[in-house]
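dumping this here so i dont lose it
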């Protein structure tokens, strides 16, 4: 029914992923598996909704009515058992935008903001760009998996007087899907010390059995009073360019502060096409997503088998969620610069170097496996050949 094996030519479409290699210091013709942007077409129902908008031909200021809330609510209720009030919903043009708004809402210049590196690099970029201090409760890597150092987490909040914690759930790039117990421990500590939690859950729809995603506020009833939950259809349905996200803020005072920060940017109504795409995706996209998850699970298994048979010193941190694989190259005993050079210039692959996610990512690489399996196979073969040279 859905052909995820189709290889779609994305060159000459102004694609950031494909058309800007030289501008970003990469060789022309390099195979890109870096930015979190899938190579699959969005569901046909979404395209149909966009075509209908285009046929109307007028793209004036657009707001949402009940059908928008109903589509978002039904999606989160059916997929995660998460129910929210319409008044909690604040729409923004993206989650990084929302994170910056939260930083400006709940902290002052010079305040410490906590993250857990290695982590999605716009977290610390947004903190620094807004004149705040980055503090990291670095994840612990042992026995091929990552865990949270809860003792260090609490100590950092106390010592640095942390007012805001940015949580990545599921985690990008290490692929952890945090358990309800882990989330509750995080939330309990933050409640205890009056630390607001911004939970980036943009990858919540990409979770592989037997793991299950827990919306932050589901872990404990009290967490609603100090949390901002960030969601979007953009990763799930490959809609990043349409710029729409849905932010859930149950507490009225936090919500008013957040909305104030958004208004100070001068932003008001969202992208007309983005809003239409969001409704269509959440109303009709479940069968497509279920098929995609099965395909991506197969891609992850393909990676694991390939590395075991052809590059046994390179280890896959098995993804519990996301479509981003985290490769451990430490077994090759190569400096990061040399590792990056071999991948770029020998294997001709554009990956995300681990140090982009903090110094804790040294010796690692992130690879986007949301592509046709034939492309993935070619990329892995090129990787093996590059290191064999």
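and the seq i came up w/
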């Amino acid at each position: 029914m859905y052909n995820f094996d189709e290889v779609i030519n994305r060159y000459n479409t102004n694609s950031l992923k494909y058309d800007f290699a030289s501008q970003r210091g990469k060789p022309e013709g390099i195979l890109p598996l870096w930015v979190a942007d899938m190579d699959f077409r969005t569901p046909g129902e979404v395209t149909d909704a966009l075509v209908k908008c285009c046929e109307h031909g007028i793209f004036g200021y657009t707001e949402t009515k009940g059908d928008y809330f109903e589509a978002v609510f039904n999606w989160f209720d059916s997929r995660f058992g998460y129910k929210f009030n319409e008044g909690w919903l604040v729409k923004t043009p993206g989650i990084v935008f929302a994170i910056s708004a939260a930083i400006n809402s709940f902290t002052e210049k010079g305040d410490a903001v906590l993250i857990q590196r290695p982590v999605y690099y716009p977290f610390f970029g947004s903190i620094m760009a807004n004149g705040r201090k980055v503090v990291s409760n670095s994840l612990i890597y042992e026995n091929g998996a990552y865990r949270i150092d809860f003792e260090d987490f609490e100590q950092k909040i106390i010592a640095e007087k942390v007012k805001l914690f940015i949580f990545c759930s599921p985690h990008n790039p290490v692929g952890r899907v945090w358990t309800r117990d882990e989330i509750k421990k995080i939330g309990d500590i933050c409640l205890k010390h009056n630390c607001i939690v911004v939970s980036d859950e943009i990858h919540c729809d990409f979770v592989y059995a037997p793991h299950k995603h827990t919306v932050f506020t589901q872990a404990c009833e009290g967490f609603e009073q100090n949390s901002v939950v960030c969601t979007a259809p953009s990763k799930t349905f490959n809609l990043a360019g349409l710029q729409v996200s849905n932010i859930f803020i149950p507490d009225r005072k936090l919500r008013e502060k957040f909305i104030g920060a958004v208004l100070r940017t001068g932003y008001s109504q969202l992208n007309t096409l983005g809003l239409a795409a969001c409704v269509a995706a959440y109303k009709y996209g479940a069968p497509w997503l279920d098929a995609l998850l099965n395909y991506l699970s197969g891609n992850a298994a393909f990676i694991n088998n390939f590395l075991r048979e052809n590059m046994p010193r390179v280890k896959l941190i098995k993804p519990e969620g996301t479509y981003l694989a985290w490769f451990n190259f430490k077994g090759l005993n190569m400096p990061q610069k040399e590792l990056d050079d071999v991948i770029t210039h020998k294997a001709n692959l554009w990956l995300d170097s681990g140090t982009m996610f903090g110094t804790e990512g040294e010796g690692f690489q992130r690879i986007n496996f949301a592509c046709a399996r034939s492309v993935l196979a070619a990329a892995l073969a090129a990787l093996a050949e590059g290191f064999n040279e």
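The CA atoms of residues 112 and 258 lie 18 Å apart.
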